[in-house]
Amino acid sequence: MLPPPNQDEYPENDGFEVDISDLVKKLISIVRQNILLIAGIVLGAIVVGGILTLLITPKYQASSHILIENQADQIIEGGDLQEAITSNEVERFLQTQLGIIKSRALTATVIESAKLDTDPSFFEAFGSEMPVEVEEPGQKLDVVRKNAAIDLLLENLYVAIPTDSRIASVTVTSRNPELSAKLANVYAERFIEYNLNQKYDSSSYARKFLGDQLQEARNKLTQSEEELNRYARFAGLIRITDDEKNGGGQSTVSVTNSQLMQVNAAAAQATAERIAAQDRWRTIANQPPLTLGVVNSNNAIMQLLAQKATAESELADERSRHQDGFTTVKAKRAKIAELDRRIDSIANSIKQSAKLSYEAAVKQEETLGQRVEELREEALKEQDRGVQYSVLKRIADTNRTLYESLLSRYNQLNASAGASSNNITIVDRAVVPLKPSSPNLLLNLFLALVAGLGLAAAIVTLRELLDDAIHSPTDVEKKLGLPLLGLIPKSSQNQIETELANSRSSLSEAFRSLVTNLGYSTANGLPEVLMITSSGEGEGKSTTASSIAMDIARLGKRTLLVDADMRRPTLHRIMDDRSQSGLTDILTGQKTLSEVVHGSKSIDTLDYVSALPIPPNPSIILAGDNLTRFIQEARSKYDVVVLDCPPLLGLSDVPLVVKHVDGVLFVIDASSFHRGAVKSAMRRLSMSNANMLGVVLNRFAPKSGSDEDAYYGYKYYNYGHDQG
Q1: What pLDDT digit, counting tens, does each position of 55-94 carry?
Q2: Which residues fall within 8 angstroms of residue 714, CB to CB, at 6 or more apart?
Q3: What dihedral angle (degrees, nearest 10) is formed by the CA atoms of 461, 466, 470, 475?
Q4: pLDDT at 411 over 60
Q5: Is the backbone peptide bond immediately before 483 cis, with ω within 30 degrees of 0?
Q6: What separation, in Å, do the N-terminal and C-terminal C-alpha atoms of the chain show?
Q7: Complete edge-to-edge strand list for the sheet that includes strand 167-174
């Protein structure tokens, strides 16, 4: 017995969560359900891949390998030949070389070297035909053939260079192995020749270019030197060469500047001497001569003082023996006086010489200062003239530097003009391939397998997305959003009556479980008036309605089973009723309920009303007021009224009845494909504001590969008749 649906068991997630294990199980289930379809698609893809592989014309690949060194000679800059690109530009340089190999110009040389544009076998090797006529007027046939040959070769040429490597591979693919190898080698040879020609052309152009530039630089240098000399002569400037200070360059000197420097130095020296003389004079100007150290240190003064001391000693000796008026005493005194006079004269002379030295220093300082001013004025004027000289000299120096650089580079190019060095060499020459490179049977079969799996996955996914059929219990909740109230197992048509008669059969157990679930479908238990319908015919709603009514009656409830399908009534056949009166008579007012109701032969609490006689227009009858009175009378007399209604699609009967019932039970045939019929029926019921109680999934047979369906594959107890 299936439990009633409980929404509390499936709380909504606050966020998006994915259960990996459930997802894997779902995928496995989908694969198992569609295993035959997947196997068929994959097998078909493999067969098609194998057939196509056998039909493809074999092609052969041959590759030559070329070493490309990143070396490029400079034209103007530098003194030595060196690499003109940095390590950061190596990749760009290598890609440029690959672009040259794949260029139409190089391909044209390959075509021309072997005259391939006139060789029909060349075009045949690439699966094409040699053009024999022009397509448009004005075109030349040889040009058309050459362009066609170039296009074919470029389409089948592959050039690549691995990362962190400088060895490029040149690969040619064709139907002729010998031609593939030949073309790969010719490509390598023509590329080397192209590189050498580029070097030679570049060197020739460089020599011519540098020769022209050198002549122009020589003329400019001569002109600038002549202008510099003329201006130097006009300005009175003298240029001299100073190897030690200027590295063999030229500097400019003038007489005025030289004199200014010398006189300025002399004036500074005179100022220093004047200051020294002035300090000496100021020191001794107000002092007695004999107190001066310079005087006392004079040799003449020192000798005179010594003579004076001797004379004074002799005077003292004479005075000790003679009177002051004595001749010798007077003589001695006169001698001392003469010595004093001579001492004073020399001392004054020494002191006066200091003053004269000071005055001479002042005069010399004034003279030199005047001369410095005169020379400064002349130097400033000369400096003004030197501005133009400096400009001319800078121009001459620039021209000289440019001339020397061009001359050095020109000499280097002349010296290396005959060199044949090349930065491109052949590492491996292409050899004739022994086996085709394509088609690869194993690879193609693998790709076909992958493609088949991808196609199968896409088809299965699309099928799952577009499939709205209800085949399993999970489809009911996922696709319809309704609870599953009953799951009726599939039985053969001739066994249904036998299994329903057996209360212990799985079919009987399923219907009893359905009735139990109906008891939980409303707040008051079983609905008083229950409608049973389906989307289309033959889905088992009549069998379901009669089985439900019987099981409810067996519970002791007074039950009325009404066949409301007045277009194709079946209840009278199920109950083996030969009476021709039924619901139609009640709704047309010809008979009452008590006159058409019949009791069940096997169950005392079960009554039924057939849909006989069949009216010409059931919709008009159902739209009348008698249906309302009939439902009210049935409610008052029975505990449960079960209405077996016609299908929804294509008919208007159900919407007329649904407003009188307490709930609707929808029957779905799990063994058929509905193509949207179920959802369309649901929409019609929703528009009628029907109270949908749930769904009965009839004729359910769990698929062998589905884990979800296997979950619902109940193994009902099989109570044998021989068991007590």
Answers
A1: 777 888 899 998 888 764 444 444 444 444 566 677 888 8
A2: 487, 489, 506, 509, 510
A3: 60
A4: yes
A5: no
A6: 22
A7: 157-160, 167-174, 60-68, 424-428
Please say whether the beta carbons of 529 and 662 come within 8 A: yes
Tens digit of each residue's pLDDT (9 = 90 or more) over 185-227:
998 888 888 887 777 666 666 667 777 787 888 888 888 888 8
DSSP bridge pairs for 239: 252
The DSSP annotation for 582-640 comes to: SHHHHHTTSS-HHHH-EE-SS-TTEEEE--PSPPS-HHHHHTSTHHHHHHHHHHHH-SE
pTM of the model: 0.46
Report the distance separating Cα 700 and Cα 469, nearest Å. Answer: 13
Tokens, residue 672:
């058929």
Q: Which of 488, 490, 496, 492 is nearest to 667 (CA)?
A: 488
> For 481-711, which CATH class?
alpha beta
The whole-angstrom separation of Cα 660 and Cα 203 is 105
CA angle 288, 290, 293 (to 5 degrees): 105
The amino acid present at 256, given as its one-letter code, is: T
Is 506:512 a contact under the CB 8 Å cutoff? no
- Peptide bond before residue 439 is cis, with ω within 30 degrees of 0: yes
304 vs 646, higher pLDDT: 646
Instruction: Return the C-alpha torsion angle 530, 535, 540, 546, nearest 10.
Output: 20
Alpha-carbon distance of 579 to 585, in angstroms, equals 12
Torsion sign over Cα 504, 505, 506, 512: negative
Window from 80-89, 367-376, 697-706 with minimum mean pLDDT: 80-89
Each domain of the chain, given as residue ranges in start order, spans 250-415, 481-711
How is residue 407 written in tokens?
């001359």
The mean predicted confidence, pLDDT, of the chain is 79
SS (H, E, C) 56-74: CCCEEEEEEEEEECCCCCC
